[in-house]
Amino acid sequence: MTHTPEEIGQSIALLLPRLRRFARSLSRNLHDADDLVQSGVERAWRHMDQFKPGANLASWMFGIMRNAWLDNLRARRRRREVALPDDSGEHPAVSPVDTHTELWSVSEAMSKLPEEQRLAVALVLVEGLSYKEAAEVLEIPMGTLTSRLARGRTALAAALADNGSAP
Amino acid sequence: MSYEDEILMAYVDGELDAKLRAEISAALEKDPALARRVEQQRVIRARVVGAFDKVLNQPVPESLLRAARGPAAPEPSASRGNVLQFPVRPARAPAAPWRAREWVAMAASLMLGALISWQLLWPGVGAPIVAGRDALVAHGELARALDHQLASEQRGEEPVLIGLTFKAHDGNYCRSFEMRATRTAGIACRAGSDWQVTATDASALPQGQLQQASSALSPAILRAIEARADGAALDAEAERNAQLAGWKAP
User: Å from A46 to nearest chain B CA?
Assistant: First the structure.
């Protein structure tokens, strides 16, 4: 079954709240997160011919956003090496209203995870994908996914232990 | 028997097979240290899940909605303003004669600059939308379609086509619909045994696009859905289950 561009547009629009949540769990800066959604959606439309009818659109979009995010990080690192060799802060611009909230604490802890662990945590915990689905999105074996997820969670637990417990 | 963290994590995530799951559940009863480790896994899971969930309720920026509709989509300004958010009048509004109430609803829609076709409010048994006590409610064939029709089983020839079914923030089900005869799309939400029509877009189905339009939503209606929907639209199975449950809020 094929879909019209209108139907696909509709489906992507309905996914936007989830895509924003996913992006927000990868990037603690709200504007960076929405930029990531924007570039993910634009990329999806450019590569729409690669979407297999019947495939899960959400999983496909998560995969595209993961690639977009990794590309952004690489580009940012290159810029930093050229222009600002001493800038070690990833992106300090966090909205002040965000501080002292649970979202901020958890984002902060997430931002310290290695990228691969952050992706595993974002897909499984934040987005609720099964291990199998998440492994497919990340194109890694299940065992690799579960070990990244376990290490990510251990690190998060340690980072959040100093931050008090959830309200 | 000792278990690795990875196993306990999979237990908490619901990823273990039934046998191992039962084994761990039984072990938890007798082993407080194991129970503590599982509890720690639960806490970290709940914190991460809970922290980001609120992002779902934040309004989606217009620029993202535009991007989602794709490069070929028409500018949203073309249909902006055509969505009618019917104001819900107080429950104890004085009982006015039917015609007067319909006139009030009509006037309200004009004041909002919205287009609602007069045919929708015609008095009589065949009207698809009538003025209820505090809101406009679906009637006749529209009400029947909202009650019984499943989007997954439509042939596309029905007078009313059901689009998406979703859960609103208040837990009630809402369904988008399109009335082919009047080329009007809208959203109706369950209120008791009625379907309250909460938005319509009379420009949703331009002439000549009837076939495509059977499943495409106008940007205006889509925005109205996004404003109300709590989570994703129901899939075919969930839609059927909701129908079997009489559209009662889950």
Answer: 9
